[in-house]
Amino acid sequence: MIALAPHHKKTRVTKTASTYGTIFHDKNDNYGVDEGEAVGKTRVGLRDVITGRVTAYATSDAAGRLDFTNVPVGRYAPQVFGPWTPRDDWHIEVAAEPYLVPFGSLRVVPRHS
Description:
Layout: E1 16-24, E2 43-48, E3 54-59, E4 65-72, E5 74-80, E6 84-86, E7 92-94, E8 104-110
Parallel strand pairs: 1-8
Antiparallel strand pairs: 1-4, 2-3, 2-5, 5-7, 6-8
Protein name: Carboxypeptidase regulatory-like domain-containing protein
């Protein structure tokens, strides 16, 4: 007698979460957001380090605040659109609830054409 295992359809469950932080031009290199350093009205995408696709976007407010919501859990590289580029090579980790992990500060410098 041969017993057959039940056939189960594979489904992918993707958890999502939110993260936030600040984008700024660290003119004095002190790793802090000082007066006049916040970068407002700038669009930033989160590029999945495995697939290479941008899966979330946010636009910074006047204080440089970025809020990403409903982002699939994973590791991302920031992609800054417009006249800025990330100063440091780092990644953003988005964790599942109940964790809301801020990514901290994204330091940028002017993009050279």
